[in-house]
Amino acid sequence: MGYESNIPATKKALEKWQIKALEAVGMFLEDRATRLVPTAEVGGGNLSGSIDWRINKKKKSVAIGTPVEYAIYVEKGTGKFATNSKAKKIPWSYKDDSGKWHTTSGMKARPFLTPAAEDNIKEIREIVRQVKFAHGIK
To answer: What would the 3-class secondary structure string for the chain be?
Structure first.
């Protein structure tokens, strides 16, 4: 009587399922975050078109983000409106490109990345469940 191990094949199948699940979650989060970008950006803004996701196979995780420099200010706010920050809480002035001076106390946060994930936990779990079921994993 011989013994044949199915462990390598099982590990490979599980890894394939995990990657498929992470891809599905990444696509879902990209869609949700893009929909949450403030309306001034939608339909041609750099921010909405730059949202992307990346899988870390080692950590078995997916990250969503954007390389747009000002995205953090939209997500977290600025000045007295900034969340989780040591930003200036007093008004400040700046000169625009035409030489006109403006005074501001900051901009309110308009998060799009955080709520894309945090407000959709139930949906994300369902996506993983569906991918798992599609791959015959119980």
So the answer is: CCCCCCHHHHHHHHHHHHHHHHHHHHHHHHHHHHHHCCCCCCCCCHHHHHCEEEEECCCCEEEEECCCCCHHHHHHCCHHHCCCCCCCCCCEEEECCCCCEEEECCCCCCCCHHHHHHCCHHHHHHHHHHHHHHCCCC
Indicate whether 3 pLDDT > 90.
no
Closest CA relative to residue 106, chosen from 122, 88, 133? 88
Question: How do residues 23-75 score in pLDDT, each as one tens digit?
Answer: 999 999 999 999 999 876 544 578 989 999 999 999 999 999 999 999 999 99
Structure-token pair, residue 98 = 């035409």
In tens, the pLDDT along 102-133 reads 999 988 999 999 999 999 999 999 999 999 88
